[in-house]
Amino acid sequence: MRDLRTLPKAHLHLHFTGSMRPATLAALAARHGLRLPELLREHHLLRVPATERGWFRFQRLYDAARACVRDEADMRRLVHEAAADDAAEGSRRLELQVDPTSYAPLVGGLTPALEVVLDAAREASTATGCEVAVVVAASRLRHPLDARTLARLAARYAGDGAGEVVGFGLSNDERRGRTEEFAAAFRIARAAGLASVPHGGELLGADHVGVVLDELRPDRLGHGVRAAEDPDVLRRVVEQGTGLEVCPTSNVGLGVYATVADVPVPRLLAAGARVALGADDPLLFGPRLVEQYEHARTGWGMDDDALAALARHSLTLTRAPRDRVAGWLAEVDAWLAAPPSAPPDPSPRG
Ligand SMILES: [Zn+2]
């Protein structure tokens, strides 16, 4: 059994606010004189009974956390800590998702909000060794014209490296808004060479995965895990090579599945889908990236070969230049070639 913290991997589904360390949230709240809701002080949603989990509670807590980010220094701190935490977990590449809309008022507009994040991403990449690229995400709760504005902004910073925009997403409550109305924004993003990486197939089932495939032509789906509910939809996902950014503890935190063992990743993989594990919003759900791989080992019974294959999926699904990816894949081979050691002490986690 090899140490999963040293398994080279990429992190493709992590939100800017949701990446925050609980201690940082507490520090920012204290600095700005804000009172945190009790559940945020207790750190995560998994403490809520399964029957009471759900999107609305999640959204309320997320908004309260976001309100603690009040200036440019806070924004930079979040990016740096996300990169540092990812680096410590073996992540070579983080594609961090941000909707600059919420932060625009803090720094004088959408453009500076995105530029602060990109600049911090460049600095954090150098400082930590984990390459941080950015996905600009529009919100389903806003007008589709706002999404187009964001897509045009994202297009101006398109690239494939650290501190560049690599993708365009669509986040927030999947049940809200009409997916087809966001197609124009995604056309703008794709024309600029950005990956299409909308959320879909978490709160809604396989039918909506089909709609997202038709309308937004995703390179990767945020979640997409419920494609497993319909063999035809899953076949389309596989045939089109659409990556699935599966976030097991987020699924459980939102009550989509009762336990991590119920998240149908083995079925997705057996069908030939490419799955990259992600943490989504560890501030609210608890576990960060490496614990998703630990769940794969304990919940789905994956051996080190299977875990290395998962890591390879995550790396090949990045938007990094292919020579960078080849180097990381060689590091995965080296991880697997090294002799396994005794399992690390299991740390008590909630
Ligand atoms: Zn997400």
From TrEMBL:
Pfam families: A_deaminase. Transmembrane segments: none annotated. One of its GO terms (molecular function) is hydrolase activity. Residues 8-335 form the Adenosine deaminase domain. The keyword Cell inner membrane does not apply. Keywords: Hydrolase, Metal-binding, Zinc. Its cofactor is Zn(2+). Its EC number is 3.5.4.4. InterPro entries: A/AMP_deam_AS (IPR006650), A_deaminase_dom (IPR001365), Ado/ade_deaminase (IPR006330), Metal_Hydrolase (IPR032466). The keyword Ion transport does not apply. NCBIfam families: aden_deam, PRK09358.1-5. Belongs to the metallo-dependent hydrolases superfamily. Adenosine and AMP deaminases family. This is Adenosine deaminase. It comes from Aquipuribacter hungaricus.
